[in-house]
TrEMBL record:
InterPro entries in the record: Cation_efflux, Cation_efflux_CTD, Cation_efflux_CTD_sf, Cation_efflux_TM, Cation_efflux_TMD_sf, CDF_Transporter
Localization: Membrane
Native source species: Daejeonella lutea
GO biological process: intracellular zinc ion homeostasis
Cation efflux protein cytoplasmic domain residues: 210-285
Listed Gene3D superfamilies: Cation efflux protein transmembrane domain (1.20.1510.10), Cation efflux protein, cytoplasmic domain (3.30.70.1350)
Protein name per the record: Cation diffusion facilitator family transporter
Family of this protein: Belongs to the cation diffusion facilitator (CDF) transporter (TC 2.A.4) family.
Keywords in alphabetical order: Membrane, Transmembrane, Transmembrane helix, Transport
């Protein structure tokens, strides 16, 4: 978690400096669209500050009240960030609509464009850095902050193009039109973050993680792992929790079952960067499993193996064994 704190502090400090630069550009130009970009920078700073707090909370060890840890606070952090972005977008649209009716003079567009272009470039580089670190450190908070900064960079690029168009045409009303367009784009970006946070808070299955897990299970699959089904994945901060049913030969004793289950757990934790907590329910095999069982030396086989069942996201997530109708 110390690495995450360091990264988010870099984001926070940079955000404050860029916010000051954008407000400087606004005071130089009096451009409503530049004010829009500067207002979003306030959201960047507030979001980074809350992200730092959420990473601190997520690092706290499990306790009696939080047996799964505190990792879900990161989803709450993303929800706050997305909500702030949406609110900023709405305020921007109202302010821009007012200035469209009551226009004002705009000055020093070239100087303002240079400042905004510089802040946009820095935001894009910082956003790329945060996203790359989010994959290394398995942090949705860093990912959300990085995506937000890159969105801000795209907004700045569009803003610079619009300011140059205003400079060349002399049509000052385009400033408010551009600002309204940016406002809608900001709202959409905020919605995507809120949607992602709600899915995490509601324990929506992490499909990307599930597919990664299934790929690893297929590549390291033992013959004794006859079947796997009812697989569910959830992410709690940097930790992944997986529930599944594993079908093993019914004649295995309890020690052998424990050994096989532990081997699945150890294999997965050695292959991925996240900490994975497995809850594996062991099922005994039944005669209907024989036609896809890979155990050549099985002493109780009722029929020869006739097909191979490759585990996929479609069949492993179902709560049933793979009988004759499955492939």
């Amino acid at each position: 978690m110390q690495s995450q704190k360091k990264v988010i502090l870099i984001s926070l400090g940079t955000g404050i400096l860029l916010m000051l630069a954008k407000f400087t550009a606004y005071f130089i130009t009096s451009s409503n669209s530049i004010l829009t970009d500067a207002a979003e920078s306030i959201v960047n700073v507030l979001a980074s500050a809350f992200a730092f707090y959420s990473i601190y909370v997520a690092a706290q060890p499990r306790d009696t009240n939080h047996p799964y840890g505190h990792g879900k606070v990161e989803f709450f952090s993303v929800f706050i960030e997305g909500s702030l972005i949406i609110i900023a977008g709405i305020l921007i649209i109202f302010k821009s609509a007012y200035n469209l009716v009551y226009p004002h003079e705009i000055d020093e567009l070239i100087a303002g464009s240079i400042i905004i272009a510089g802040t946009g470039l820095i935001n894009f580089i910082l956003g790329y850095y945060l996203i790359s670190q989010s994959k290394t450190l398995n942090s949705i908070t860093l990912f959300a902050d990085g995506k937000h900064l890159q969105t801000d960079a795209y907004t700045s690029a569009g803003l610079v193009a619009g300011l140059l168009l205003i400079y060349l045409t002399g049509l000052n009303y385009l400033d408010s039109v551009l600002s309204i367009a940016i406002g809608f784009f900001i709202i959409y970006s905020g919605y995507k973050l809120v949607r992602r946070s709600v899915s995490g808070l509601m324990d929506e299955s992490d499909i990307d993680t599930a597919e990664e897990v299934i790929t690893l299970l297929n590549s390291c699959r033992k013959d004794s792992w006859i079947d796997m089904h009812n697989l569910r994945t959830q992410r709690y901060g940097a930790d992944i929790h997986i529930d599944c049913h594993l079908t093993l030969p019914y004649y295995f004793d309890l020690n052998k079952v424990h050994e096989e289950v532990s081997e699945v757990d150890a294999m997965m934790n050695s292959q991925v960067s996240s900490s994975i907590e497995f809850f594996i329910h062991a099922d005994p095999c039944v005669p209907e499993c024989c036609h896809y069982c890979r155990m050549d030396s099985c002493p109780v086989r009722s029929e020869p193996k006739s097909k191979d069942v490759i585990w996929t996201i479609e069949n492993v997530t179902r709560n049933m064994k793979h009988f004759s109708g499955d492939v």
